[in-house]
Amino acid sequence: MMTSFLFRALDKNAALFLGLLTAIIVAVPALNLLLPPDHPLHVPTYAVTLMGKYLTYALLALSVDLVWGYCGILSLGHAAFFALGGYAMGMYLMRQIGTRGVYGDPLLPDFMVFLNWDTLPWYWYGFDMFWFAALMVLLVPGLLAFIFGWFAFRSRVSGVYLSIITQALTYALLLAFFRNDMGFGGNNGLTDFKDILGFDVQADTTRAALFAASGIALGLCFIICRAITRSKLGKVLVAVRDAESRTRFLGYRVEHYKLFVWTISAMMAGIAGALYVPQVGIINPGEFAPANSIEAVIWVAVGGRGTLVGAVIGAVLVNFAKTWFTAAFPEFWLFALGGLFVFVTLFLPKGIVGTVTDNWAKVSRRKHAVDERPGDTPSTRPAPNPAE
Amino acid sequence: MTRQTSLLYLDGVSVSFDGFQALNELSLVIAPGEMRAIIGPNGAGKTTMMDVITGKTRPDTGDVYFDGVIDLTGEDEASIAELGIGRKFQKPTVFESHTVRDNLDLALKAPRGPFQTLFHTITGAETKQIAYLLDLIRLTDKQSELAANLSHGQKQWLEIGMLLAQDPKLLLVDEPAAGMTDAETEETAALLKDIAEDHSVVVVEHDMTFIRSLEVKVTVLHEGSVLAEGSLDHVSADPRVVEVYLGR
Amino acid sequence: MPYLKSLLVVLCLLILPAGSAHAQEDTESLRPLINELAGGGFSETEQQLGVLAATGNPGVVPALEALADGDLYARKSDGVVFIGERDGRVYKLTDPLTLEPAGEERRRDMKKIKVNNGLRRVIRTALGTLTLMAPDPATRLAAADAMFKAQDPGSIEALDLALTQETEPRVRRKMEAARAAAVLKSDKPEAVKLGAIATLEALGNRDALSVLSGFLPEAQGAEVPATETAMARIDKTLAAWGAAENVWYGISLGSVLLLAAIGLAITFGVMGVINMAHGEMVMIGAYVTFVVQEIIRTSAPGLFNYSLFMALPLAFLTAGLVGIAIERGIIRFLYGRPLETLLATWGVSLILQQAVRSIFGPTNQEVGNPDWMSGAFELGQMTITYNRMWIVVFSLLVFAGLMLVLKKTPFGLYTRAVTQNRRMAASMGIRTPWIDALTFGLGSGIAGIAGVALSQIDNVSPNLGQGYIIDSFMVVVFGGVGNLWGTLVGAMTLGVVNKFLEPYAGAVLAKILVLIFIILFIQKRPRGLFALKGRAVDA
Predict the structure, then answer these.
(1) ABC transporter domain: which residues (chain B) (predicted)?
(2) Percent of chain C as helix, strand, coil, to the nearest 5
(3) What are phi and psi for residue B98, nearest 5 degrees?
(4) Which residue in A248, A253, A373 is closest to B144 by CB distance?
(5) How close C515 comes to chain A (CA, Å)?
(6) What is the CATH class of C242-538?
(7) Is residue A8 included in any domain, yes or no?
(8) Residue A276 included in any domain
């Protein structure tokens, strides 16, 4: 059952994407580690880390797309799940510092010593073990999403109302994590990491490994998303997106479907956050900012919602543009980003991938006049109306 | 007829929205296997009645029973659909970004849980059933078309097909002939009569020729309660019905 | 006793400039009496103090005050008395009556008039007596207040004397309280002290409570239970006032929320448009205020007090026009697609923020309060600042004005018609696109004038709007979409709840709790407090 489920994910397009991703996962670390720094094809370590960061963003975009593109739930709070996953990883990395901290306390992270705490809070227990932290990366965002979704979907909060309360959720978490007595480092967050699984986080090899890990996580989550969206459940999700109450009258318990996909999506965002933190070397409450969540949504919109590849492409493109802009014209980045929001919603509602495949489908149809059965590859899908 | 022997039993159902009385002590009984037409001017409460039966709206007072024993007022839309009540909406509502085939596939009687659908693989019986339905609603050659690309009448038919795919005991059909050509209307009436052979059907319609061609018992709703009931000739002779339709 | 000192300086400033020719003459007659202070030992000085006090002339206050501080000196050569300030090897002299500089003298030419604690008490009483009889009620009140704080049994007589003449009820109450406080420190019999306790209990404020709690350890016999009950009762009164104060703070916060949310209630509630740039409309209003004040500062400083009145229409117009531009340029293409509208307007908000940041810089801008917005007044046991009060009034006026516009004008009628049935309205000849644009402009304009008000209490920076957008949405959603009364009730409820939570949970946690509360509330009543019911809403 499981194999047929996963097998469904692998059609030609998916294989193309996964092949490309594999090539990148192999090539970038190889070009970084094996070539001498003065070689023209050498990829500097900072670029590896930067691209690794893009991959985690792509995974976040994938998770947003799963709920928004396929189920019509516009989450303005996915950064919360991302940040929670990041904090879980950050807590593990903090515990790994041990006596190498500024205060040299074997048990307490520096900021706790600074706050004159004498015991480790109970919720920091277990984070010295990687497997536990990894479990929490999935469980904490998943559980929060489950509880939140349980309430929200059962009482049929949907559309913009849901968007606004997801935003309130991440805002509340932002305020909470700013507090020193929450025990997560307050304003400064968690930083000064030393090593992960015994490897120095600053080392080139570790960086390359983290990059590869991000790529592999992205690939695996892509396969899972693909399998989900191409299953009958995926069809139900799209049905919910397009005509929620009709789906109900067919006998589907819409809230269960939403809750399922919402929780899965939150866990993926958590994984993305967990891979993000060791690469950027810090996690602080700023990651909860509502603006971050909305930015993730625009990555998906740019790439093309309802197309998994689009989410990945959108995230990488927008973030590449951000890196370039903020270096070249720092004042204009917000103009560009704001303009992008307006432009995409007005002129490119299907995003890059959606528009391209649309035109391509039209051309190929004229050529062959064949009706290929569209699964999740968008062909002449009308602009989804998640307002339903 | 008693509640126990009925298929659908509404007694004293009232619903109000912010002071507006949409249903007022409505009582209606449908027998197993019966086909019933419901007419009434705008605002008579036809759609609200359907909402109450399908669990979208909770009645303020009154009883709603299905199959004699199941209290529908305590159930939600999904479980009512699972119990065997299918509904076609006034405005044709199909899943526009799915193909005709997928629309039917989604409607097919099958386990409805998320994990069941996640690992669902289509069976031979299901393929057969879909082929049968496609043929019935005359959309076989459009089966890979997106539902969005269908004409209005085709959408109506697809929705009826989806209703049948659910294999419900009771079909609630809201204005199936709206926006159809005369020929299409005739065919729709024939189709409904076919369906009524082995299902109970409640049809809400404005089109009197359509109602006449169904040749069934008619219930006239007015201001949220039953004004008259009987054959079409009987109710059209009722002066109160005439007044409601013409007298204002 | 620094408090008393500064108080007296203030008193002097109050009294002296008011000196008429008559006062001048009196003042000169006082000079010999003051010079007598240098007469000899403590007892002579004390006697002379009595004489000075008996004149009832406030002109002697500075001299007495200086004496209490040990700053009064007599010139050895002629015995004339001055207020002196040590400056290296000389004293800088000040005339004790006119308070004008009177040159310098070498230190060895001056003799300090000595004081001890006994004398200081006498001086205080004398000062108290003098000011208690002053013609200005504010001076008398301040004097009584100082005595209340000093709690000196020696002031009882002075107070008794003053009470025989005092007619102003406010001052009388204060004097009685001061007397009661002094009585508790004295060795008067129990019955008198019980009376004093009752007086303090009737006063019922924090000061009375502290006097009583200071007295409790010294209380004897029947005084103990009397003090305890009095304290308990005062505690209760204070708790009631504390609650009232919380309500006021809550209403004040609520009015800020109302101002921020009310424009949103129109664009979101009435039109169903999610405008994430709403906060930036508020920000634009605040910056208009800043610009208006800058222009006034440079060209017509005299008009500063009217700056807000000038800013209001300008802010309304500016924000309103920006709103109309957004509606015409973006939103009208996205009707029926609320989630896209949300994203596009978020983009607009980023652009507006960055535009303001580019023009005015990223830092906070200085927006001043006009005089009538500054200061505070007392109401019972609580202090109400004028700016908060005016903002409450203003928010209610805006609310009422908006209600009037929507209910009584043709524009309001059209707006409601378009809201309820767009196609019907269009077929009746209403230009629905214009109504959309104008309604959106109205909502944005109101956000603009909210910005004028909020510039008075918040930092005017490009991020101003971001702080309000989530709260505003919470208010509208909580109150019930499409219902302005819901917005009013929602804003006030959230404000008050927030302020009541703050003492227990702290400001941040209170905010988090309120957010969680709303999140849960929306689950329970997805359409808010005052939801419209019916088929149309579900469509």
Answers:
(1) 8-248
(2) 75, 5, 20
(3) -105, 160
(4) A373
(5) 7
(6) mainly alpha
(7) yes
(8) yes
